Amino acid sequence: MLPLVLLIALAGIQLGLVAYCGEQAGTAARTAARTAALPAPDGGIARGRTAGENAVSDWLTAHVTVRSASADGYRAQASVDVPSVLPGVHLFGPVSRSATMPREDTTP
Question: Which domain of life is it from (predicted)?
Fold first, then answer.
C-alpha cells in the first residue's frame, strides 16, 4: 500500500509544480511586456526580455521573447521548463504564457 500512496503523493507534487511554472511564466510575460512598453531609456525590447527572465524564481529556467505587436504595444511570450520530481522522467514540456501591453503615453 505504501508504494501506491507515495506514487499518488509524487503525482500531486508534480501537478503542483506544473501549476507553479504556469504562474511564473505568466508573471514573466507580464513583466517583460510592461517593461518593454516603458518609454526610453527605461523600456525597450532588450530591457523587457531581461526583466521577464529576472521575474522568475532562480531555480526555474525561463525563455522570454518580446516583440512589437503593433505601433501601440508590445507582446511578450515566456516559457518555463517544468522540473520533474523523479530524476530522468520528464512527463511535461515547458509551460508558455503570453501578455500584451500598450505603449506608455508620454504626451502631456
Answer: Bacteria
Do residues 76 and 98 make contact, with C-beta atoms less than 8 angstroms apart? Answer: yes
Instruction: Give the C-alpha separation, 69 to 45, whole Å.
Output: 11
In angstroms, what is the C-alpha Rg of the chain? 17
Which pTM value belongs to this model? 0.87
100 burial type by CB count under 10 A (0-12 exposed, 13-18 middle, 19+ buried): middle
- pLDDT digits (tens), the chain, 108 positions: 999 999 899 999 999 999 999 999 999 999 999 999 988 788 889 999 999 999 999 999 999 999 987 778 899 999 999 999 988 888 889 999 999 999 877 666
